[in-house]
Amino acid sequence: MRVVLEIRRQAAPGGPSRWARYVLEASPRERVLDLLLRVKAEEDGSLAFRYSCGQGVCGSDALTINGRNRLACKTLVKDVGPWVRVEPLKTFRPLKDLIVDMEPFFAAYRAVKPYLINPEPPPERERLQSPEERACYEEATRCILCGACTSSCPVYWVNGRYIGPAAIVQAHRFLFDSRDLGAEERLAGWLGGRSGVWRCRNAHNCTEACPRGIDVNRLITEVKRRILEEAF
User: Is 96 in the same domain as 111?
Assistant: First the structure.
């Protein structure tokens, strides 16, 4: 089938952007990532975009495709039709073409201390937990830090200091881990502060945007409840 691929191009940070159009013959089962790779290999080697595994695991090729945040490696031509418009993730500062500055996003991720905190002496073997305890945070472990949820969040659009849904999901993963003892330390920091979880207004954009099917809004609500439980 004939596919018209439009890509928002930008040569440098802060510079003007333009739409570039490419006409390709493609199979309905080809991915948008395949189209981008063909343009770069056959038509314009200067096209810049990120990708790595190409299997929906690394999250590096998250883009705005036909107005929705998606992974280019998981979005098929048949799902978006013969007219495909590709832009960098919104609200993140474009660096070149489809590449955006992810440093503020990862700064928020680091701020929630996304690692096990347990000052107790380690046991001789592993720290055990039941299947039920594991299930409390199982969903949060599916996050691949692609940024699709944070980019889709209307609070983040107007308040760039908001920690964002992805960081809250990562905090959830450890707050509900029975082996972790760092809840007070996390909640006393950015997570529970003015730009933390309470900025969420339950728009549910984050849940819709997640390519891993995580109910992001529900996990955010659970973090809010955890804060209230710790307070009282």
Answer: no
Residues 13 and 128 in one domain: no
What's the number of domains the chain is made of? Answer: 2
Same domain membership, residue 148 and residue 34: no
pLDDT in the model for residue 192: 86
- Of the residues 100, 129, 144, which one is the last residue of a structural domain? 100
Full-prediction pTM beyond 0.85? yes
Please give the residue range of the domain that contains residue 87: 2-100
- Contact status, residue 186 vs residue 113, Cβ threshold 8 Å: yes
**Interval 108-122 mean pLDDT:** 95
Helix residue ranges per DSSP H, the chain: 32-38, 77-80, 103-111, 131-135, 148-151, 154-158, 165-175, 183-187, 205-209, 216-231
What is the amino acid identity at position 206? C
pLDDT recorded at residue 232: 58
Mean pLDDT to the nearest integer, 69-79: 97
Q: pLDDT grade, residue 187 (50/70/90)?
A: confident
Contacts of 73 (CB under 8 A, 6+ apart): 31, 32, 33, 51, 53, 54, 55, 56, 61
183 with 210, same domain: the answer is yes
